[in-house]
Amino acid sequence: MEVVLLERVEKLGQMGDVVKVKNGYARNYLLPQKKALRANKENLSIFEAQRAQLEADNLKRRAEAEKVGEKLDGQAVVLIRAASESQQLYGSVSTQDIAKAVTEAGFTVTRKQIELDKVLKTLGLHDIKVRLHPEVAVGVTVNIARSAEEAEIQARGESVEEAAEAALNERDEAVVNVFESTADVDVEELEQVAAGEEPKDDA
Predict the structure, then answer these.
(1) Coiled coil where (predicted)?
(2) Which residues, including other chains, have CB under 8 Å from residue 85's CB and lie 6 or more apart?
(3) Residues 6+ apart with CB under 8 A from 37
């Protein structure tokens, strides 16, 4: 089917382009979303008559999207999810989940504006694209972690496993230090102190 595009469509063309697409793609996506019209004589005449207004509206929407994009680009949002020891999520993160997190961060977006090239099923930092306008897309980092503490570790670029191991080593070292500091203490003196007595001086 031949259609005339009413806005830029990635990998297809710019506003006003007449392109040939699969019937299903036109019927299920381009036409219902008002991104295109069937390229017949009547519709082409309608488009040409409205072209100046469509282009003006498009420029206005693009300017607004660019303004929002300047603030949103590079932002990070945190999603807390349950996951296994192998960092696999019990389930996956959807475009709806990301849109909600971005909206809670102060930017109103819909799930249709979130572009995922793969399903998010693991912990870690994931770079995703938010399409604010057909001609404006920005990058956002989705930080998926089991807890707020893990999210902070990941945001610093550190490995959660290495941080956990370091914390264990630190705890073990503290235990050893406590043991070593008490190793030379006279047990009898400790018992006297515990009983509220003054330690006896053997000298």
Answers:
(1) 37-69
(2) none
(3) 3, 4, 6, 31, 43, 46, 47
Q: 138 in the Ramachandran plot: left (φ > 0), alpha (ψ -120 to 50) or beta?
A: beta
| 189: in domain | no
- Please answer whether residues 142 and 136 qualify as being in contact, where contact means their C-beta atoms are separated by less than 8 angstroms: no
Nearest residue to 16 via CA among 42, 57, 44, 53: 44
Q: What is the pLDDT of residues 134-167, one digit of tens each?
A: 999 999 999 999 999 999 999 888 877 665 565 5
Q: How far apart are CA 93 and CA 131, in angstroms?
A: 18
The pTM assigned to this predicted structure is: 0.69
Question: Considering only CA atoms, which of 144, 163, 168, 24 is closest in space to residue 92?
Answer: 144
CA–CA separation, 83 and 62 (whole Å): 39
- Please say which residue of 69, 104, 122 terminates a domain: 69
Residue-range definition of the domain harbouring residue 119? 76-155
